[in-house]
Amino acid sequence: MGDFNAVPSPNLIDSYRIIYPDSSSFTWKRDNSQEQSRIDIIWIPQQWGKKIIECFTEQLELVTKSDHKIIQLKIKKTWQIHLDREVQNNIGPKYNIKLMCDEKWMKFTTH
User: InterPro entries, from UniProt (predicted)?
Assistant: First the structure.
């Protein structure tokens, strides 16, 4: 989650818009109203755009008890993208949940 008022990075694209550039599909609708919007978005790097297999919305209100549809995105997994920056040791610390205490939870949440 992030700042809903922030402008998305210019390096990111709306995955749903790649597949459905002219769609008027909405992901949210206010009860008993005509008010609706497509406020739920999966942002992906531009270079992933050609790797999208499918992207769709699904109404699961009975399961989620939410007024938002779920967005699902499937991307080809037999590819590799080289980012501009090199990522070193991107594996975070490992925690054994059975051994956690307040101090360790605090360290975990601030990592």
Answer: Endo/exonu/phosph_ase_sf
Integer Cα distance of 36 and 47 in angstroms: 30
In this prediction the pTM is 0.56
DSSP letter for each residue of the chain: ---TTSPPPTTEEEHHHHH-TT----SEE-TTSS-EE-----EEEGGGGGGEEEEEEE--HHHH--SBPEEEEEE--S-----SS-----------GGG--HHHHHHHHH-
Contact 56, 21 (CB under 8 A): no
Backbone angles phi, psi at 110, to 5 degrees: -100, 0
How is the chain split into domains, by residue range?
Answer: 1-84
